[in-house]
Amino acid sequence: MGFTAQGYGFLGFAIFGWGISWPFLKIALAEIPPWTFRGLIAPSAALMILALGFVLRYEVESPKGQWREIILASFLNITLWHVFSAHGIRLLGGGQASIIAYTMPLWAVVFSILFIGERATIARIMGLVFGMGGLSVLLSGELGVLRSAPAGTFFMLISAIAWGAGTVVQKKVKWQISALSCVAWQLLLGGLPITLIAIILESSQWQPVSLAATCSTIFVVVVGIFLCWFAWFRVVDMVPVSVATVCTLLVPILGVVSSNMVLGEVIGWREVISLCLICIALALVLIPVGTAFQKFTTNAS
After folding, report:
1. Where are the domains of the chain?
2. CA distance 219 to 226
3. What end-to-end distance do the CA atoms of the chain give, in Å?
4. Which stretch of DSSP H or E encloses residue 214?
5. Predicted confidence (pLDDT) per residue in 185-218, tens digit
6. Contacts by 265-273, CB closer than 8 A, 24 or more apart
7. pLDDT tens readout for residues 233-288
8. Rounded (10°) CA dihedral 161, 162, 168, 171
9. What is the pTM (predicted TM-score) of this model?
């Protein structure tokens, strides 16, 4: 499909919703134990997506013959991502966590080169260099997050790496089910083990939470996961993939700004430089260089 106002409307909603979810994740996780929080929102979002699929008559089916692949993808994209990011967000600022989380495409490039034979182009290598530079700035020095919150930094890095690996699995497999079904099953299969572990490990810690934590949790489930994923699926059908993926650069920027506005987190020079370097890195990794070069030569002629 071509460029449409509706497509860009869905894209704007998805990017904005994901970006401003970071401070609300922080608010919810300040009161709700991490396993419990993730064990609640992942299966809930899965059921909401499946219900929406049935209501809108989208094709919702089981992954027959691909259970092994979808279990692996759900373990990387959902279980590891949700668990480690929840622990990381509790220990880091929401903006800092979002910057580390969105190094995911860089890790995906590494895994795609190593395991599915994608070419190590100059743009991708430069992207990795800029990305590692940006991450190093955020981690370094007496005031860096590696010194102030080493465990949180480690957890967020593991979650970003797992998400990157899961993205490569997602790309490598030729799924026989719709994209909506694929995400719903991943949320369900990856989320239920978290729920079971939460019952075992954290049920003794369950206590009433504040209105702020309750509303933040509802916001993350409904907006951050359910509506944003639905909007993203519509985006894929309406907007060029190159445009959509590069627009995800706005997510960590919104994460930093919204965390400053909602939580009062200080935006220091490390966050600004790190964010700029990582955005440059993601642009180099995500923008299809061949297409850009073709447009340049066409315009030049």
Report:
1. 5-295
2. 10
3. 28
4. helix 211-219
5. 999 999 999 999 999 999 999 999 999 999 999 9
6. 265/23, 265/93, 265/94, 265/95, 265/96, 267/95, 268/143, 270/137, 270/138, 270/140, 270/141, 270/143, 270/144, 271/95, 271/96, 271/99, 271/138, 273/134, 273/137
7. 777 666 665 566 667 778 888 888 899 999 888 888 888 898 888 888 877 876 65
8. -140
9. 0.83
